[in-house]
Specification:
Elements: H1 11-21, H2 30-37, H3 40-49, H4 63-70, H5 73-81, H6 96-103, H7 106-114, H8 129-136, H9 139-148
Helix pairs in contact: 2-3, 2-4, 3-5, 4-5, 4-6, 6-7, 6-8, 7-9, 8-9
Length: about 150
């Protein structure tokens, strides 16, 4: 077997490929933390520098998921303006819209629906955001979702 030796000028590129391949995935980033805590200044600063607004944490959640869980309208708006995927699905099969129902924020539900969030996506339990709202008895959210369909 013959080994081919790479010319020295290719070593930096090979090292870069190797280092990118070994970066752990599924970790909470500063963007996730800023979205969850509602630190809009930090969030906007990171959005201009962050290469991937849809990066996933260890549970498969994006920063938009985290903003939805926190019920933070401004953080979610900043992420959507930066191109965040409104229909990204985490490991539980849930979208940011599912979590917005749990945070009981009808204005955030309306904003996500206005950004083309799909209310028909089923989570791993077979529930849509509407199902979750109905199960919890969140009448205003139920009406918001129904009016978008």
């Amino acid at each position: 077997m013959r080994f081919r030796i790479f010319p020295i000028q290719f070593l930096p590129a090979l090292f870069l490929l190797w280092s990118c391949a070994t970066v752990p995935t599924g970790q909470t980033t500063a963007l996730h933390q800023a979205a969850e805590t509602g630190d809009l200044g930090v969030l906007e600063s990171l959005i201009t520098k962050e290469s991937d607004v849809d990066a996933r944490d260890e549970r498969g959640r994006s920063a938009l998921h985290r903003a939805a869980i926190a019920g933070d309208l401004m953080a979610a708006a900043a992420l959507l303006d930066a191109g965040a995927d409104q229909n990204c699905i985490d490991r539980d099969g849930r979208t940011p819209l599912h979590y917005t129902v749990f945070s009981r924020q009808p204005d955030l539900v309306a904003m996500l629906l206005g950004a083309d969030a799909d209310p028909s996506i089923l989570d791993k339990e077979g529930k849509t955001p509407l199902d979750l709202a109905e199960d919890a008895g969140y009448e205003e959210i139920i009406q918001t979702i129904l009016s978008s369909m």
